[in-house]
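By way of example, what follows is a protein record of this kind.
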Amino acid sequence: MAKGNGKPDLDLEHELPPADSDDVAAEAGAPENESAVAQGAGPQEELRTLKAERDALYDRLARQQADLENQRKRIAKEQADYKDYALADAIRQLLPIVDSFDRAIQHEGGEDKDFRSGVELINRQLHDALAKLGVRPIAAQGGPFDPRLHQAVQMVDTDAVPDHHVVDELQRGYTLKDRLLRPAMVRVARNPKSK
């Protein structure tokens, strides 16, 4: 049995052949269906069952892969949206400063032309930096009133512009790409003849 090294002697030539599934079922005491075995339906039925299970698992895998791909696309879109609009709050904080620069330039009382040109340069640089970030001013003066972009603060009886058009802009509005940051505060024309 044991050769001189203390290990049992294995005789590989006398190993049992692998057990057949029918033999295992018979040894386990399972009743044998003679007609199913005679017709060969046992293995065929098992094959059909395994194929159906495989098809179900394949379908489930395909659905999960599609769900995963949809999730990836959704996350990529959300990240792009977040990136596009992450600066919206910070830009809203800067808009009053832009307004102050615009008003300073409109003021005619300045004697020092070098100071005025310096303020104009800073204002232009600030507007250029905002434009690079996707911030655009809303056109309002003389155009039709749009409640999605304009905030009417007063109706003015006038024939100078058509009815329901902007007479003048009190505060400029801005958009960030396609999102409204701040509506333009405007006065809107009301033609007395149209009453």
Summary: The mean pLDDT is 78. The chain is about 50% helix and 15% strand. Helices lie at 21-27, 34-39, 41-85, 88-106, 113-132.
